[in-house]
Amino acid sequence: MTDAAQLASPGAYADAVAAAVQAAAAYYADGSTPLGDDEYDALVRGIEAYEAAHPDEVLPDSPTGKVAGGAATGDVPHSVAMLSLDNVFSAEELEAWAVGLERRLGHPVDGWCVEPKLDSLAVAARYRAGRLVQVLTRGDGLAGEDITHCADTVLGLPARLTELLGVLDELDIGLAGDIKRGPGARRQFEPLVERLRTPAAAFLQPELERRLADYVEANDSFARDRIAHALAGACGEAALPALLRASVSDRNDDGDTLQLDLLELLSAWPETAHHLLLGCVASHDPGTRRVGIWGLSVTDFGGAKYFELVADAASDPDPGVRADVMSTLGSIFGVGDPPRARALLMAGARDPAPKVRRDAVQALGSAHDQTVTDLLVARTEDTDHWVRFWAAWSLARRPGPSVRTALERLAADEERDVREAARTVPELPTTA
User: Smallest Cα–Cα separation from 322: which of 300, 344, 296, 299?
Assistant: First the structure.
């Protein structure tokens, strides 16, 4: 980090102001500049220090306190000021900023999300009665330059918001109709959905989220997924909370596309994803906790970061959460701590809830040591037939007389699924 420039005289201060103004003007004119970012920041900090010590000598051209150093201009006032991000250059400044933020919020901050800052172009688009009437640059933050002529050719902004509202209305009518739902129907709605999958449709976020919640409530997975796909394309990162909420009642059990859209968003914005997923894991709602466990299992490869958090959920009071933990520990996520994962799976195989035992026994199928084999043999006498089914699959082709005796017993089980699983072992007799 470059230290602040030391300005010892009024002349040096005036030269520094002139250099900073020239650099900012060049940068915002064509992107070229005689100073690098660190050099420019150091120069401005030197100017700020001199002005703090000599408040009566502040020049009107000084870049301090101005968006873009005062280089960006415009004569059309903004309805709402377009502010710029501030800088900090030391741990002390960062701590002071955090304290100030918590003071303004009125409560401590639970966690922070840190992301790289990418330079980009910000504009303000004004619509009246659904029609684009003006586009402004940020300018100095208070007023900008009118660039409405670039709206279509450069920025791709729609001339009328009513066009997108009409597309949404047409989609609503189609989804409310009597249609045969399946791959063919998805193709039928694809043109409408794709027209909404544009940042220009981000203003429809409240409407899309309301529809998404309604279709989730109605258990209409087909309509839900069409709206979710449009929402993900229009709003990107901002769509994550709504898609996570929609997943609470259905995580792709119907084979539709909600989970695919969610996976794409989780992958594109991992920092935001982990922040939201950790909130899900800490929720009072069991379904939301299950979504959090699932999300961490697919975003934290090999349990490198959140293994302990997921493992601790093996003692969750809700059996659905515990069952999801068993499935997660039986996946690649379990390599985060193999001994603990194995111990938790073996404990899960004895859980009071059948669904937990099922997932634990299924996950133990890849472990072939004698201790696990003995546990699986014991589970062949479980009262739940799906536990017996997975015990049969997990024991298939393992050596030992106790295994064969257990499988022979299961080959005569009262449940057909269990019998068929047990008969995967060669030469076991078939019972009608």
Answer: 344
| DSSP reduced 3-state for 126 | strand
> Residue 49 to residues 42, 97, 347: CA-CA distances in angstroms?
11, 18, 64
Please report, for residues 360, 363, 415, the alpha-carbon distance to residue 382 in angstroms, rounded to integers and kept in the order given.
13, 16, 13
Taking the alpha carbons of 211, 212, 216, 220 in that order, is the dihedral positive or negative? Answer: positive
Structure tokens at 354: 């059948």
Nearest to 348 by CA among 321, 373, 380, 383: 321
Transcribe 131-181 into DSSP letters.
Answer: EEEEEEE-TTSSEE-B-GGGTTTTS---SBHHHHHHHHHHHHHHHHS----
pLDDT along the chain (432 residues), means of 10: 67 87 71 72 85 86 64 69 74 84 80 69 76 79 78 68 85 82 77 88 90 91 91 93 89 67 92 92 94 92 91 95 95 90 96 96 90 94 95 86 90 91 63 48
pTM over 0.85? The answer is no
Residue 219 CA from chain centroid, whole number:
24
